[in-house]
Design goal:
3-stranded antiparallel sheet, alpha+beta, 93 residues, 29% strand, single chain
Length: 93
């Protein structure tokens, strides 16, 4: 890697593993909220937020393309079908 273009990553938070995702939109941003859906003994549900990220609508296209690219890379690298190859086959039919 070219040292001039390298970026030092500084993590301010620990990674977590959410089980749920909420997406909200407004005119100025898309809000992605990751969390865990929980149910108490009285069958009351709550959503415990793990992370919340606000992105511009324009950045949504970049995020989406990166996620799709990563899905195909994951399938190829780990030889595990998580649905991306199936979606590509369906679109060709």
């Amino acid at each position: 890697m070219n040292e001039e273009n390298s970026v030092e990553l500084i993590y301010n938070v620990e990674p977590s593993t959410p089980t749920s995702l909420r997406v909200d939109i407004s005119k100025d941003f898309i809000l992605l909220t990751f969390g865990n859906m929980e149910e108490d003994s009285e069958s009351k549900k709550s959503f415990s937020v793990v992370a919340s990220i606000r992105i511009s609508p324009k950045a949504l296209c970049l995020l989406t393309s990166k996620l799709i690219e990563t899905g195909f890379l994951y399938e190829e690298t780990y030889e595990k079908n998580i649905g991306f190859s199936d979606a590509l086959k369906d679109s060709k039919e």
